[in-house]
Specification:
The complex is a heterodimer. By secondary structure, chain A is an alpha+beta fold. Chain A contains 13 helices and four strands. Chain A has a four-stranded antiparallel sheet. In chain A, helix 6 runs antiparallel to helix 7. In chain B, helix 10 packs parallel to helix 12. The longest helix of chain B has 34 residues. The chains are: A alpha+beta, B mainly alpha.
Chain lengths: 300, 348
């Protein structure tokens, strides 16, 4: 079944989705879409941006509030202390807090429709969230902060090169495995997936069909062709869609040797009835244990 | 093709009996409950689980399981692609909501401190012992090197960490500027020193832990190096007859800080062990399995680092008698020992 769906998706979207099955605690396999490397990088960049903005806002607030007190001894020190503490908190707890409170999504991930889940299909436990985010320190924060430090404490060119290699090594790690796991995912046993929103559209089944087909005619196609037809019927109406429908209608008529010609106005109704009849027949066959994957497997 | 045509010549017959599809009937019967679940899940996704009423909270897992069973049925009887994709998506979104981390940061922290942290430490006691031995070995090496020739001091301890202390320092300088230096006042102590120490120490701790993935080599090196630095400092002071004062000065926070360092090292060694000796599991599964408890140890160590930083940066210089310093050190040491040995045993 999933194989058929994968084939349909590949046919319609032109590329194979990076999918993987997780098994829920109830024992039902659910296919999930692995988040792509680009999406992950974007989400991380967004989160960093949010962190930096928040720290800068705190800094501005501190300047505004403490500005009038600038003459008082120790105010500058207090401001630096507060800033250091805020930076420390953001660096260590921003990701952890949101992944715990927002069910596996930081603001950046949420904007891109990504989520952290348990790789084995169990519940996402706090320990896993903590583990995957502590590792961020060596993956990104430490080398980044060293690279960005300038002046007397800045690293030498050779150190910069080494730090760049370090960043690259950890940054590219997701590209070298199928599940796009970074080091933190390895330790935490987690997986980042994309959660597409899908809408339940109306049922295409036409309860009172005008056209009737025999089993012999319906045997000409399988589940793959049925689902492609479904996709075509669900397309919004346009000149292009009508043209494709006309072509498909002609092809179907030729294949099942439909005796009469179908007029342009009747194409929609004909295809719909054919879809209904075909689906009814294929589903009945499937219930009896005969899965017709496509027209070649159908053996017409 | 041609015999098909011959047989089905008289096929078109308009207005015949309606077709009954099991999958359509099934959908009609269940669709309301899917929509219900979708509404609840969408609300939780937008505004959090707390927006659901008690009755809705009770309904959610039931609807989720119903959706899962619908999916299983649909997979076997329906060929409607949109329906299957919708159900898969809905079941997954509901799965994320139902199996989300239920504990917030606050309640999770309480359970962590009461149970899982000491338990994780106890489970890693052999790693802890190994980490201690490595640190000790480094310390002894550092002590012997500097005790034999003080020139070693400047090659072991980085200049900005030594901050002026070295072979050139006299006994009086060490006493005045370091061991019994005046307290800089609450602001400078807490706002700057404690903050800096916290960021610095936790960073080293996290690196010690996380680089355990690299088969533990960096972890061992970092532990040994930290021992080396402590040993070097100790030798410097012993040669000036300040052994007791120095140990008191370092022990007041060092008991906590070294415990934290060792915990990070032990966590790193746990990671190293899973990478080197995966045992019955695949290396990746094993890492996921043990990595979490190792990370728990590392996070607990962060808390210890925090306490150590408050003691060291905050009010170590306020306690200006060596005897008192030893008392605090012994008290914290006993406290940690009791905590790690007894906390969270047997209860659930």
């Amino acid at each position: 079944m999933t194989a058929v769906q994968d084939r349909v998706a590949q046919f319609l979207e032109g590329r194979r989705r990076n999918r993987r099955d997780i098994v829920t605690p109830e024992g039902v396999p659910l296919p999930v879409e692995i988040a792509s490397f680009g999406e992950r990088v974007c989400a991380f960049a967004l989160d960093l941006l949010i962190c930096f903005s928040a720290i800068i806002i705190v800094l501005l607030l501190a300047v505004l509030l403490l500005g009038p007190l600038a003459k008082v001894r120790g105010v500058g020190l207090a401001a630096i202390g507060v800033l250091l503490l805020v930076a420390f908190i953001f660096r260590n707890f921003y990701f952890m807090h949101f992944e715990l409170a927002w069910r596996g999504a930081t603001p950046g991930k949420r904007l891109l429709g990504l989520r952290v889940i348990d790789r084995g299909g169990g519940a996402l436990v706090p320990a896993a969230v903590v583990a995957r985010n502590l590792t961020r320190e060596i993956e990104a924060f430490l080398p980044l902060s060293l690279l960005l430090s300038v002046g007397g404490i800045g690293p030498t060119p050779w150190m910069r090169l080494a730090l760049g290699a370090w960043l690259l090594l950890f940054g590219m790690l997701p590209l070298f495995n199928r599940d796009r796991l970074r080091a933190g995912d390895l330790i935490g046993g987690t997986l980042v997936v994309a959660v597409p929103r899908r809408v339940l559209l109306g049922d295409l089944v036409d309860a009172a069909p005008g056209y009737r087909f025999t089993d012999r005619q319906l045997r000409a196609y399988g589940a793959f062709e049925l689902q492609i037809l479904e996709e075509l019927l669900r397309r919004p109406d346009s000149i292009d869609t009508r043209r494709v429908k006309r072509e498909v209608c002609d092809k179907v008529c030729r294949r099942i040797a439909w005796p009469a010609a179908i007029s342009d106005a009747a194409v929609e109704a004909f295809l719909r009835d054919f879809y209904t009849a075909e689906r009814a027949w294929l589903e009945r066959e499937q219930l009896l244990g005969k899965l017709h994957a496509d027209k070649n497997a159908a053996g017409g | 093709m041609s015999d098909l045509a011959a047989q089905d010549r008289a096929a078109p017959a308009a207005g015949a009996t309606p077709i009954l599809l099991k999958s359509s009937e099934f959908r009609k019967a269940r669709e309301a409950s899917w929509r219900d679940l979708e509404g609840l899940v969408a609300r939780v996704e937008r505004r959090g689980i707390l927006t659901l009423s008690a009755e809705e909270l009770e309904r959610l897992p039931l609807l989720y399981r119903a959706a899962l069973s619908s999916l299983s049925v649909a997979r076997s009887i329906a060929l409607d692609r949109n329906l299957l994709l919708y159900l898969e998506g809905l079941a997954f979104r509901a799965f994320v909501v139902v199996y989300a981390p239920r504990t917030g940061l606050r309640r999770g922290t309480a359970a962590f401190l009461r149970r899982s942290f000491p338990a994780a430490v106890r489970a890693a006691r052999w790693h802890l012992l190994l980490a201690t031995l490595i640190l000790l070995a480094g310390g002894i090496a550092g002590f012997l090197l500097v005790a034999a020739d003080e020139a070693w001091f400047s090659s072991i301890v980085p200049t900005d960490y030594a901050s002026g202390r070295g072979p050139g320092s006299t006994r009086q300088q060490l006493l005045d500027a370091e061991i019994f230096a005046p307290w800089p006042g609450p602001l400078r102590a807490f706002a700057l020193a404690a903050n800096f120490l916290l960021s610095h120490n936790t960073l080293i701790g996290i690196v010690t832990f996380a680089l355990g993935v690299a088969a533990g080599v960096p972890t061992v090196l970092l532990l040994a190096y930290q021992g080396l630095v402590i040993g070097a400092f100790l030798a410097l002071h012993v040669r000036r007859g300040l052994a007791v004062e120095f140990i008191g000065w370092i022990a007041i926070h060092g008991v906590t800080e070294l415990t934290a360092t060792l915990l990070c090292g032990a966590a790193g060694l746990v990671l190293a062990e899973t990478v080197l000796f995966p045992g019955r599991h695949a290396r990746l599964d094993n890492l996921a399995l043990r990595g979490r408890s190792a990370a728990q140890i590392a996070v607990g160590a962060m808390i210890l680092f925090f306490i150590a930083a408050v003691i060291e940066g905050g009010f170590r210089q306020l306690v200006s008698s060596t005897g008192l310093r030893f008392t605090v050190a012994a008290a914290t040491g006993l406290l940690w020992l009791a905590y790690f040995v007894y906390a969270g045993r047997g209860r659930r």
